[in-house]
Amino acid sequence: MNKMISRIAARALLAASTLVLPAASFVMPAVAQAQNAEQVHVRGSIVAVDGSRIKVRTREGRTVDVTLAEGARVAGVARADIGDIKPGDFVGIASLPKADGGDGALEVLIFPPAMKGTGEGSYGWDLKPNSSMTNATVANAVKGVDGHTVTVSYHGKEKKIAIPPGTPVVTLAPAGMKDLVAGAVVFVPAMKGDKGALTAQQIVVGANGVVPPM
Question: DSSP for 113-157?
Answer without folding.
Answer: GGGTTTT-EEEE--SSTT-EEEEEEESTTSS-EETTEEEEEETTE
